[in-house]
Amino acid sequence: MPFPGLPWPFLRCVAALADAPLTLIAEQLRDAMLPYLGSSALVIFTEDCTGGPQKKAGEEDIISRVSIAELDTLRAALSDETPWFGEAEIGGKPRPVLALKHAASGALLVLTDPHPTGPGHNTGLDVVTYLWCIAARRIQEKVADAPPSYLLESRAASAERVRVTAELTDLHSTTLETLLAALRSSSLDNAAARSTVTDLTAKALVRLRTLSDRTMHLAEEPVATAFERLREDLRPLTRFSGIEVEFIKPPPNGRALPGEVAHAARAIVRGLALAMMEQPEVSRVRTQWDCDGENLLINVRDDGRGALTADAPSITRLDRRVQALTGQLRIDVMPGWGADVFVTLPLDPPARPAGDVAGWNLAARELEVLQHLVAGHRNRTIASTLGISENTVKFHVRNLFRKLDVGSRTEAIALAHSHGLR
């Protein structure tokens, strides 16, 4: 070692954390913190990773039960990046926790049953906070530079989560609504018990619907919110580069963006802005977003001499990212007037060619119901859209299961997807 006085074990942990892949970052962070602060489990909650918002390490009994609702409630209670010690419900029961929030990304770190393992409580907490900042920034960087395969896998995971949540919502809503009807029945003479259980069940229904909405929020991001996050990302450039960055906002009521599209769009604009600013005589960069209902439309333009080219390495890398989401990138170079880049990102995954479903012998109404199932709609929504009762929808769903030879909505959806139904 050329510098024997340096804390090499700590520096190695920092290096491993800074280089950790997303799949191992929770384990690496817990190992790095262990000499200073022990814990029974470590959980990271980050909406940057739409396909996997939780990164976990530690006792299986805790990490297998922790929910997004618990983490979201805890995060909402934190006002800033100050470490918070207290008791919170994690993994289904109250536990002592240390929680830290990363202001730049909104990511949350939770350590359950925290206990000092080294000398100096304050010193250990400072080190833990420092390591958490490294991990949070690492997550941001990995998502921003994600390869096409990650974007496609993340989009698939998000879509599947929405479908499964819709299925669970249907299942539990039906159960709870049936229970409510029974408890309200005049044949039950215990009025006090009926009133209490009715109240509890009604609250459970509200909570279940809230969880469904929360899952949908994780999979999508309002276009105006996504654009404001882009402005925050580019704020340091406007502050220190001396180059003016002009932002043309999208319509506030535009269609919400899938999480992967929102993240990719911000990364693409950041990359384009940096590439343009590296050119000589650029004093202004303008970025504009719009949404036509089916695509996110991005335009980035500079006022340079038109030196940017489509085959530049930076543009080529960005084009690969655009293609990963089946989008298009076009660059118009005007010598002496600058470069104009247009990006189109579809908001829906590409539809496969519809396969031969004639063998299923579906009636027209059954096919309509199946298409609604594939879209993640609940029985109540299907009934309202088609102008039929929920019982009729359930009747068609049972017939679908029999004709498709499946045992659940998830299986039916998967089979329909394999045949290209959307």
Automatic annotation (TrEMBL):
InterPro entries documented for this protein: HATPase_C_sf, Sig_transdc_resp-reg_C-effctor, Tscrpt_reg_LuxR_C, WH-like_DNA-bd_sf
Annotated HTH luxR-type domain residues: 356-420
CDD domains in the cross-refs: LuxR_C_like
Protein name: LuxR C-terminal-related transcriptional regulator
Recorded coiled-coil stretches: none
Keywords linked to the UniProt accession: DNA-binding, Transcription, Transcription regulation
Secretion signal span: none
